[in-house]
Amino acid sequence: DIKPILKIGGAKVLDVGCAQGAWLHSVDASYPNVHYFGVDIAADAIKNARKANNITLTVGNVLEGLPYPDNTFDYVHQRNVLALGIKKIQCVRVIRELIRVAKPGAWIELVECDSVGKNLGPIGTALGNPVTTAIKDRGFDLYSGTNLMEYVEAQGLRATNIDLKTVSIPLNWGEGTIGRTHALSTRTALLALEDLMHQVLRITREEYKKLVNDAYEEWAESKSFIS
């Protein structure tokens, strides 16, 4: 569905929550005749991003309105922004803003995952349960992947031809590199919660880091996954 858009010379692509632009650079490698734009709230990420002539990165906050006019982009991409970056009551507003900057007939791709592991072993459960409780208590949606269709349908504007695909991604197991890459990313996210979670669990920072690393090893044995 997206390839014909990217093959059009001069098409405009936006990545919301672009960080340092890794996704944009990966698409640019296959489709160089496109104008790419990225926006992220993290000014340091934008400042340190790799430069490219056809990629423009901007500091901005989707909750405050994207810094682009209506009907600008042929393809709008957003990945793992709703899960832990946007509170549940704000999710519909974010999707409405993505639709605003998309041209009529444009393609909008949203990729979100539930923040709840499945088939967790005893260590993973000891870590996962308090983490998910802490996230929920702060107003974030633990099931942003499952609830994504609900948010899209509730935006009340001009989104049509909506398609949903659900997949399960292994944590540190399975064929190829996906399981290991996913596990490394999840471990990094859990370690980033150290300031909060060592207090919630009433353990030292070192004990929390060990718990995360032990869970990482256990995921392979328990065949844990996230959908």
From TrEMBL:
Protein name (database record): Methyltransferase domain-containing protein
GO MF terms listed in the record are: methyltransferase activity
Q: Which domain of life is it from?
A: Eukaryota
Q: Which organism is it from?
A: Physocladia obscura
* InterPro entries given in the database record: Methyltranfer_dom, SAM-dependent_MTases_sf
Domain Methyltransferase, first and last residues per copy: 10-114
